[in-house]
Amino acid sequence: MNTRHFIPFMLLLCSIFTSCEDMLEERPYSELDPSDVLTTVNGIEKVLVSAYGNMVWNNVKFRLTRFEGWPADLSWQTGGVENRTALTIMNWTWDASQDQFIGAYRRHYDAIRDANIILGNLDLVTGIADNKKASLTAEARFIRAWAYYRLYIYFGATPLRTSIDDPAEMPKASQEEMLQFIETELLAVIPDLPEPGAEAQYGRVTSGGAKALLAKFYLNNKQWEKAAAACQDVIDMDKYRLFPSFEDLLKAENDGNSEMILVTPLSPDGPALNYMEGAFPPGFAAWPEKNVVNTSWENHGTQHRLRESFYNSFDPEDKRREPILTTYVNDRGVTVDLLNDAEDNIRSFRFWPDVNAQGNRHGNDLPEIRYADILLARAEALNELNGPSEEAIDLINQVRARADVHDLSVTDFATKEALRDHIVQERAWEFYEEGHRRTDLIRMGKFVEFARKRGVENAEEYRTLYPIPQSALDANPLLEQNPGY
Questions:
Q1: pLDDT digits (tens, 9 = 90+) for 173-182
Q2: Which burial class, exposed, middle or buried, applies to 340 when counting CB atoms under 10 A from its CB (0-12, 13-18, 19+)?
Q3: pTM of structure
Q4: Rounded CA gap, 322 and 318, in Å?
Q5: Dihedral-angle region of residue 82 (phi above 0 means left; psi in -120 to 50 means alpha; beta otherwise)
Q6: How many separate helices (H) and strands (E) can be counted in the chain?
Q7: What pLDDT score does 18 carry?
Q8: Confidence band of 32 (pLDDT split at 50, 70, 90)
Q9: Residue 26, burial from CB neighbour count under 10 angstroms (0-12, 13-18, 19+)
Q10: From residue 351, how far is each of 8, 72, 280 by CA, in Å?
């Protein structure tokens, strides 16, 4: 089998047997027969594939829209069966019963369970080389740390399950315990992970991916000095480059390009990108200016829109505006002007439709961390440490140069706050609809502020964390709900 598609294919097999809607329930150890699965390298790697599959959590669109997009300032939604849930997200009236919270919480703990199964049984594997054992251990520990990182940015501190023998009922860890665990695990695994390009299959984590996640972990916890150093560590690897064309960056044919550091591989035949169903406007047939023609793609009732104020915030010469659809030809041959026919009706085509898509199943990979993120993260950390500097501005200008927009100058920013406000906007232009916006705004102190400016009456500070799902509370009486819910 082509290794490029190994992980998506195996993740499909895992997803057939797992529903993201199920209640939180750790699978008993007895469901896995150690004599069959957990005593061979092949068996251990099957559990590892399951762990990766649970990190996808079956619905990529949910992370891009419900978790990071709709509660923030760049995108919104109308129409279709999804609108009822979307309104609770956009209006900040979500609660602990909603499916997306249940699915995300459960699936990340399923990934943690899988990692713990691997770590608890590697000593049973016979004939395994020491370096292979070290690599599998590091990979399992990375996935576990990555799952806890995601749980932390969405739900805050949660129970730290680090063994297959942990009891079913556990209280939350303290914030300090949670942060220390994630940091310690990421630092520990980097030496034993393969260098970029040496991984066994495309999409499996490398030392570069672990270093990049560590950098983002530090950034989102405002450990500025550590964040700046960790970003520089990634840069100094000299393994990654900005892809020449922003417009082509996320096209399926460019999956695996030099900018991608940590990526979730997707495929029409496995876990797929399901975002475009709502990005297509009604009756979408073609975007003639970009030679995009709809031959078989699904066009659902849900409508994923961008705000015109965001579109108008770009420099007119900024190439990053190119993947935003403003006019199209519908299935009646009529040209529709989205920019002027209705309020906030333009669409993101960041994930260009995949010519090999099957209905709504597109094969564009999802970048978790790309090189542009590391450059802007270091610039942000340097600014928070020392205010505007030539180095910070140079890092931002590297990203802007690809977009063909003018260089910034350190004299453009009189204060740390002024440059911070610009970085908020620069990250919007660079990463829109990639699943980072809510987290960026929370870190920069703008999440509640921007929502209130949009007129969201329920925008309160406690909603910077999502509620622990009610199903998890019911299953674990020692677990406490986040304050405010």
A1: 999 999 999 9
A2: exposed
A3: 0.93
A4: 8
A5: alpha
A6: 18, 10
A7: 41
A8: low
A9: middle
A10: 18, 20, 11
